[in-house]
Amino acid sequence: MSVCTLGDLVLDVIVRLRQPLAPGADATSEIALSAGGQAANVAAWVAALGGRARWIGKRADDDAGRIAAGRLSRLGVALAGPVAAAGNGIVVSLVAPDGERSMCPDRGVAPELRAEELDPAWLDGCDWLHVSGYALLRDPIAGAAAAAVGLARDRGAGVSVDLSSWSAIRDRGPERFRGELLALAPDVVFANEAEERILGGPLPGARWIAKRGARGCSFEGEVRAALPVARVVDTTGAGDALAAGWLVGGPDLALEAAARCVQRSGSMPALT
Fold first, then answer.
1. Mutual orientation of helices 238-249 and 251-262 as an angle, nearest 10°?
2. Among 266, 235, 247, which residue's Cα sits nearest to residue 258?
3. H or E stretch covering 91
4. Which residue, 14, 27, 96, 155, is most buried by CB atoms nearer than 10 A?
5. What's the pLDDT tens digit per position in 78-104?
6. Gyration radius of the chain over CA positions
């Protein structure tokens, strides 16, 4: 299985809180750096699960960009796309003691990807094009994503979309975004409950995969429980791991990948 993903590659700054935040004072924490970004996460998990993966997007040749790109390459993912001199995206993830997380993103140059910067050869041989919803919710990258969908379809590839963020959908305008999705006509949509709700329900004609967090997942109406884990360390990236697992091997592998993800810190699989 060969999967191309389109969207962000960022440097993740993961802050695991050991105490509640204390305004004007300190909160004991553990801090780690890793690669991240929804499209990059999915590509990394595809590679870890035995598929071939290529990430497509705009990144920067600065310290943050070099760290993130190096990590993704070491995980077995091919990188494609223009490289700016500076301005790679950085995301700070605050992880509470129960594993739940809040994210503070600075997407940097990623939303600046333009349709004319795409090389059609990047889509050659791909079975699936997985588009991060973040790439559909800002311009000009939304135009690049639509162009990539056309190129993927010309090559017989399926198209999947992850809705990514209810707040970004709110900012884009739910009715506008729903219309844009209908025009793209993805084969598969991944959504959590908040994203599904703000969008106004499932998209007609698309296979709908509803992520329910600790309560599992609904695969086109078939509800499956999450796999039991010894301890939830960090939920960051669990939905991306689930999407990668589904693209590579269906519901069983999707649930397995999500369970693996929540038992480690960060959004990507471990380097082997």
1. 150
2. 235
3. strand 90-95
4. 14
5. 999 999 999 999 999 888 877 777 889
6. 17
Which amino acid does the sequence have at 29? S
| Residue 267, pLDDT score | 87
- Cis omega before residue 120 (within 30°)? no
Q: Between the CA of residue 91 and those of 37, 45, 100, 222, 271, what are the distances in Å?
A: 8, 19, 16, 33, 20
Instruction: Sort strands 217-219 and 207-211 into parallel, antiparallel or unpaired.
Output: antiparallel
Average pLDDT, integer, range 122-139: 97
Tokens 């990047």 sit on residue? 122
What one-letter code names the amino acid at 264?
R
- What does the DSSP assignment read for 37-77? -HHHHHHHHHHHTT-EEEEE--EESSHHHHHHHHHHHHTT-
What's the pTM value of the predicted model, to 2 decimals?
0.93
